[in-house]
Amino acid sequence: MLLEYFHFTRYIKPTWYFNLKPEAGKTPYWLDYDQLEENEKQIAIYDHSFDSKGAALLDASYQAWNRGIISHDQKKALSVDKLTEKPSLADNYRFVRKYFNPAWSIYILMIRLITFHNPFKELPAFFRGTKTGRTNLFAPFHKHEAYASYDARILKENPSVSIILPTLNRYKYLKDALLDLGNQTIPPYEIIVIDQTDNPDKAFYDQFPQLPLKLIFQDQKGQWLARNRAIQQSGGAYILMFDDDSRVDPDWTAEHLKTLEYFNADISAGVSLSTVGAAIPENYSFFRWADQFDSGNALIKRAVFEKVGLFDRQYDGQRMGDGEFGLRAYLSGFLSISNPYGKRIHLKVSSGGLRQMGSWDGFRPKKLLAPRPIPSVLFLFRKYFGKKLAIYSLLNSVPPSIMPYKFKRSKLMLLLGAFISIFIFPLVLFQVNKAWKLSSKMMFEGDKIEWLN
């Protein structure tokens, strides 16, 4: 809905899950300000500065979404009948200035002028938008205060949770991860470890006799091959995804289960806290709809896999296989909650695991002449969002990726990377063209989604 009306968001958030409409499901994601409770209206604030009522209603709905107002009541849905008066050009610039860095509005203006949009319309609308101050999109947020005292029935019913834990050359970190799993207040039904180490130390596991371990030693390396195989052999009603370079609190499993019941959801998408890479997002501190899926920290009802399939093997050795699964589940109507209490510390160690198999992230290849982004990233974008939005994603993601991963926290360094990309444009173009061709090959091959037996 957002992309249809505030269409400038295609320049900033071109491949956001919620730009697409789920095929099924009756839970409203976009709420009508007029139908909110009074305390909710203090969180999603109606902005009278927009030219059209449609823009003001959608703006309030966007606030409600981002600030964690969650409802299953279809009567609260924002109806398209109320959006007949669409946002003006100035409203679009105003919306961008309100929630995003001012540099984005300049970027959008440049793109639109270069693509032959009427400057006599664009420039006045742009300058009207500059009068709008920046608003914190994540404050105030809905606190869901009843959650703390909620007595979850599921925690008393001995739920069967299968924990999926792939590992590769990380016994040092795997030990701590297994110890954490052994300390859970809700004991796991089973812990399926998929060991892909070249010469596995099978005796390593003898030190955990108290754990319900199921060991799979896999010669062929592949993160989605490993997870799919483990899920196929699992017996739990709930599948809990974990990584070998992670630490969790004793109530980790319990908080995931409680969240599923409290919000009547299908997926509890835990947050990952790290001291490496980008800063911890502000919205990780409260419940909200999840717009990403982390295969290192998520609890999924088995029924989700039964309907949408397992992970797509096209992403083995590459990136965004978890993002693709999360998007597929969303499009099938399953509900996913971003869970601040189902948190993990992600150590992001520099050796072993996916670091050994691929790259630090989807846009930073390890080698100079390697494709940028990783081909699977473009495969995902092109498959679900189309060519045009995939190109917009390249425009706003590739230039900052010139700087190494360790600088993701620095906006100044990312901006520097964007300037550097201009001077090394032939190299960047070569990398992107290579990624596009390889993703085209993947498009021709189609997905390789496996299914539960």
Brief characterization of the structure:
This protein has 453 residues and is of the alpha/beta class. The chain has helices at residues 2-5, 9-12, 38-41, 53-66, 89-99, 102-114, 119-129, 146-149, 171-182, 223-232, 252-263, 302-308, 321-331, 353-357, 375-397, 411-423, 425-445; strands at residues 161-167, 190-195, 213-217, 238-242, 246-247, 267-273, 288-289, 297-301, 336-346.
Description:
The protein is α/β, with parallel strands linked by helices and 453 residues long. The protein folds into 3 domains: 2-129, no CATH class; 146-355, Alpha-Beta Complex (Spore Coat Polysaccharide Biosynthesis Protein SpsA, Chain A); 360-445, no CATH class. It has helices at residues 2-5, 9-12, 38-41, 53-66, 89-99, 102-114, 119-129, 146-149, 171-182, 223-232, 252-263, 302-308, 321-331, 353-357, 375-397, 411-423, 425-445; strands spanning 161-167, 190-195, 213-217, 238-242, 246-247, 267-273, 288-289, 297-301, 336-346. Strands 1, 2, 3, 4, 5, 6, 7, 8 and 9 form a 9-stranded mixed sheet that branches. Helix 5 runs parallel beside helix 7 (119-129). It is globular, with a radius of gyration of 23 Å. The protein starts with a helix and ends in an 8-residue tail after the last helix. The model has no long low-confidence stretch (mean pLDDT 93).
